[in-house]
Amino acid sequence: MGASAILGACSGKKTEFRGVDITGADYARDIPLTDHNGQKRSLQDFRGKVVVVFFGYTQCPDVCPTSMQELAEVKQMLGKDGDRLQGIFVTVDPERDTPEVLKAYMANFDPSFLALSGTPEQIAAVAKDFKIYFKKVDGKTPTSYTMDHSAGSYVYDMAGRLRVYNRYGSGAQALGADVRALLQEAG
């Protein structure tokens, strides 16, 4: 533990976040899904990193690419500490978001970011645990549908504990401040 973390612990000073502090929440416990490289994943895989989880779909016209671009900006803002950040995108559209599509989508933002998927039932279970709403909205053709979904990011500290919820539209500066706070907390 770094000196500032020890002093903070001794003084009882609580880390302040720009997002919603949800430290101690009993939901969003894990992401037992498969990444775009075919590897089964769990939050435990990312211990030692601050993890940011976002739910969306690759054909989303605005919210999803904006959120992922902001996460990429945060990684750049962190400089050398950027490799201590893990971006996770969980698809709510496994029908169209194949591993190949997800891999190409992540490459638009940062090659270290991972996209997770699973069966519709697995995704529904994880979304329920994260309190994520999503629903298919029919389009003019069977393949032109959209997905309504909750839009916000869940931020985990380096020990894998859920700490912050950043609402969509908070911006890269707010998310970056929260990620920095968690990195400093860890020392």
UniProtKB/TrEMBL annotation:
Residues 22-187 form the Thioredoxin domain. Disulfide bonds join C60-C64. The keyword Disulfide bond applies. GO terms for molecular function: metal ion binding. Keywords: Copper, Disulfide bond, Metal-binding. It comes from the Bacteria. Cu cation binds at C60, C64, H149. PANTHER family: ELECTRON TRANSPORT PROTIN SCO1/SENC FAMILY MEMBER, LINALOOL DEHYDRATASE_ISOMERASE DOMAIN-CONTAINING PROTEIN. Belongs to the SCO1/2 family. This is SCO family protein. It comes from Acidovorax carolinensis.
